[in-house]
Amino acid sequence: MQLFSQRIKEIRQKLCFSQADVSEQTGISLGTLRGLENGKVMPRLDTLKFLSNLYKHNLIEVYATCLVGNYQALLTTYNRAEAKIAYQNYAELGDEITELIALREHTSSEFFATQITQRMALLSAIILTERDNDRRGALRVLTNALKQTTPTFSTRTYEQFYYSDLEKRLLMTIGLLSRFTEHKPATLKLFQFVHQTSSASILHIKACYHLALYYIESKQFQLARDCINEGKEHAQEQNQMYSLGYFGLAEAKLAYQHNEPDWQKQAEQINLIRNYFNLPFVAIETDALPLFY
């Protein structure tokens, strides 16, 4: 906090603003500004956004950098892990876990340390599932990660709690893996919960995809079609074009299961989409579609 307080004071002084000037232009009280600059007030997200506009600095990133020794390295590691997940290079995620362990040791923020630990849990669960075929082990890892912030968490009581986007992703992954265990009935409710509570993020798109697959398997074809259409619309709005490859596979699977006359032609077109997005080969008639972590 002291380092961040010093930084924002230096930025204000370089801009030749008094605290009164800042208060007048942002509506933030003088007491709050003084507290921020002497390290006695924890910055709120909306406060940092207001000040960022006036100070011409991304103060959210400045604050994160003060809390995490090498914030840019953390973002780089996160992005590299996401790229490996996107291209199904699951066995290589161990490198990112090793890097995250080192980065966690250099953070003074309990929040970031917990977030890093939960991110490591997600990567570990993916490795256990995809490389080791140990879904039960993966479920234990994910459940323990959620219990870090919600000690009474369980798949029976999860709807009672508030979750960050990362925690919702852990929750969705529990739903994915529950399809292959005796907890399969929990899958639909988990997907619906994530779908309903993440309306403006990539997570919502992923929930649409997995809900569509669930409805295809249970022969609720109109619901599946609705989820596919909704997911494609959100993917285009958010410029998540990679997601369209997954929905293309889901459309072909739906056409086959629904016994639509042109499903073979659709499957051929999907192979072109699959190659473009570097998705794994899928025999629409027999294979399960890939998980969208």
TrEMBL record:
Annotated Pfam families: HTH_3
Coiled coil regions, renumbered to chain: none
Domain HTH cro/C1-type: 8-62
PROSITE patterns linked to this entry: HTH_CROC1
Superkingdom field: Bacteria
One MF annotation (Gene Ontology) recorded for this entry: DNA binding
CDD domains referenced in this protein's UniProt entry, alphabetically: HTH_XRE (cd00093)
Protein's UniProt name: Helix-turn-helix
Source organism of the structure: Amphibacillus marinus
